[in-house]
Amino acid sequence: MGSNGQSAIKERRPSREATAGSAARSPDIPCAPHPRVLLLNAGYEALTALTARRAVVMLLCGKADVVHDNPELHVMRSETREVRVPSVIRLREYVHIPHRAKVPMTRAALMHRDGNRCGYCGVRATTIDHVVPRSRGGEHSWENCVACCERCNRKKADKMLAELGWSLRHKLVAPQGRNWRLVSSLREFGPHWEDYLVA
Ligand SMILES: [Zn+2]
């Protein structure tokens, strides 16, 4: 993917900030970044969320087309033209994404699966516990790991649940769904994204 033309595109600041001068850098004035843009494969599968700048570059290079505009008007400007920042764009050519049967387990992904709650007591989780302790052959897997609070983690140490009389608040399963990883990494959805992300 070439980076040609990137430097020629300038973000136009909202007029509210343009008049603020040096005060625009003050931390109490919120900056209004352009919204992210959902990139779809040529077959309409969601791929990733791009920065507005990257999305506009892809449009200008002819690599992608607009699928949905953003109802809020965000404009980026090059020397010669203005481009509206869309909400959803689609690649002109299909890119092959290797299929991964399982979502890789990371700390952040596990916390997301468990809603940041301790799997034993339900308070805010700060660590990860191996249900069957590693010292007893427990695996580092979706099915054997659970979000956990400090207190439960300390109490449990290398014991089995049966030894403590504890039980899990929910069943431990690997997350399913094509878009799980992308959805879990997004803070919010843009306009029309739901049509492509909720599988
Ligand atoms: Zn706990």
From TrEMBL:
Q: Where is this region: Disordered?
A: 1-28
Q: Which part of the chain is the HNH nuclease domain?
A: 105-154
**Pfam families the record matches:** HNH
Check the UniProt entry and state the signal peptide residues, or none: none
Q: Name one GO molecular function term.
A: nucleic acid binding
Q: Which InterPro entries match?
A: HNH, HNH_nuc, NA-targeting_endonuclease
- What is this protein's record name? HNH nuclease domain-containing protein
Query: Where does this protein come from, organism-wise?
Result: Dietzia timorensis
> What is the phylogenetic placement of the source species in the record?
Bacteria, Bacillati, Actinomycetota, Actinomycetes, Mycobacteriales
